[in-house]
């Protein structure tokens, strides 16, 4: 359903067939140094979720082996738009 791709909801609101969404939120919380309740997510494609919160964002890819699935950080987390703009503005004033 298209609305699932736009969902910025908490993990307990995701369909149960999603690959361990609680694990995705736990990993993102650690990687982004952000409380779970401040995280937002968006579906990028069938295997990829974007996570954002506390001024950072990251992409996670669902990886499965022998029926066991997990989420893997796809590269480094980056500052989100607002955090990047604030950092750029700070650099301009120095």
The structural class is: alpha+beta
Large-scale geometry: globular
Number of helices: 3
Can you write the helix and strand succession as a string?
HHEEEEEH
- Major sheet: 5 strands, antiparallel
Fraction of residues in helix: 25-40%
Question: Care to describe what's here?
Answer:
This protein is of the alpha+beta class. The protein has one domain. It is built from three helices and five strands. Strands 1, 2, 3, 4 and 5 form a five-stranded antiparallel sheet that branches. The termini are far apart. 17% of the residues are buried. The N terminus is likely disordered.
Name its key features.
94 residues, alpha+beta, 5-stranded antiparallel beta sheet, 3 helices
Any chance you could write out the topology, listing elements then pairs?
Elements (H helix, E strand, L loop, with lengths): L1 H4 L15 H11 L8 E6 L2 E6 L2 E10 L2 E6 L4 E2 L1 H12 L2
Antiparallel strand pairs: 1-2, 2-3, 3-4, 3-5
Summarize the structure.
The protein has 94 residues and is an alpha+beta fold. It has helices at residues 2-5, 21-31, 81-92, and strands spanning 40-45, 48-53, 56-65, 68-73, 78-79. The protein has one domain.
